Amino acid sequence: DLDRTQKKQLKALLDPFLQWHREEELPAYLEILEQIEGKLDDEVSATDIAAIASEFESAWFRLEARALEWMLELGEGLSDKQMAAFVQRLWDKQEEYQEKYLERDDEDYREDAYDSLLDNSSDYLGRLDWGQRGMLEEAAAQLQRSDRVWLDERAGWIRRLEAILRREPGWQQALLAAMAARDETVSEQYLEVYTHNTAVVYAALADLLNSRTDRQDQRLRRKLADLREDIEGLIAQ
Questions:
Q1: Residue 49's closest CA among 62, 61, 39, 34?
Q2: CB of 6 within 8 A of CB of 78?
Q3: Which of 89, 110, 169, 177 shows the greatest Cβ crowding within 10 Å of its Cβ?
Q4: Which residues neighbour 157 within 8 Å (Cβ) at sequence distance 6 or greater?
Q5: pLDDT score of 183
C-alpha cells in the first residue's frame, strides 16, 4: 500500500510514461498490425509467426526498460516494511503458481495447453472445425512441460531480487544490471524447453491460419481492425 504522498508521486511519474507510450510505442504497434495484415494475403509460415512474436517481445522489453525508470524512483521512497511486503507478495504468488501448476499430471498439462491454444485461436477465428482442433491437439501433445523449469527460474529471480531490494548503496544499478543479464542467467534446460515449445506453437499457428475458412478470415480481419481502432483512439488522447 502507498501513502498519500507516494500516490501523488506515482501519478506524477506515470503521466510522462503514459505520454511516451502513446506517442512512441502505440504507433509501433500499428506497424506490427500492418505486418500481420500483410502476411494474411499469402501463405503464413512459422518463420513469419516467429518474426511477429519477436516484434512484440522487443516492444515488451522497451516498455519494461522505460517503466524501470519510474519504478526505481518510486522504490527509493518506499519504507522497509513496504518493500518487504512487495517481496513477500512475490513469494506468495510463487506458492500459488506451484499449487496450481505442479499438482497436474502430464495428461492435465496437455489438456490445459490444448484448451489455452483453442481459446486463444477461437477468439480470433471463431469456431474451429475438427481438423483444425486436431492441429492444436497434436501441437499440445508435442509440448514439453515448462511449468517446473519456469517456476525454478522465477524462484531464482525472486531470490536475486530480494537481495537487491535490501537497498544497499548502488542497488539501483545492481537491479538494472540484473535485469540486463537475465538471459545469461537462465538454465540450459529452460532455454531448451522454451525453444522447443515456441517452435511447436509457431508451426501450429501457421498451419491453423493457412487452413482458415473465408468466414474465419473475415472474423480475424475484423478483430485486427478493432484493435487498430482502439490503438488509434488511444493515440488520439
A1: 39
A2: yes
A3: 110
A4: 182
A5: 85
Cell triple for 35? 505486418
Measure the CA–CA gap between 168 and 135, rounded to whole angstroms. 52
What CA–CA distance (Å, rounded) separates 209 from 202? 11
Chain segment 87-131, per-residue pLDDT in tens: 999 999 999 999 999 999 999 999 999 999 999 999 999 999 999
The three cell numbers of residue 150 are 519456469
Distance between CA atoms of 85 and 96, rounded to whole angstroms?
16
Residue 187's pLDDT is what? 94
What is the percent of the chain where pLDDT is above 70?
A: 100
Cα separation values, 120 from 29, 117, 126, 170, 195, Å: 19, 5, 10, 43, 21
Point out the residues of the chain with pLDDT beneath 70: none
Quick one: pLDDT at residue 44? 97
CB-side exposure of 112: number of CA atoms within 13 Å?
14
pTM above 0.90, yes or no: yes
Question: 85-90 long-range CB contacts below 8 Å, 24 or more apart?
Answer: 85/1, 86/165, 87/158, 87/161, 87/162, 87/165, 90/158, 90/161
Question: What whole-number distance in Å separates Cα of residue 115 and Cα of residue 121?
Answer: 10
**C-alpha closest to that of 193 among 148, 128, 134, 137:** 148
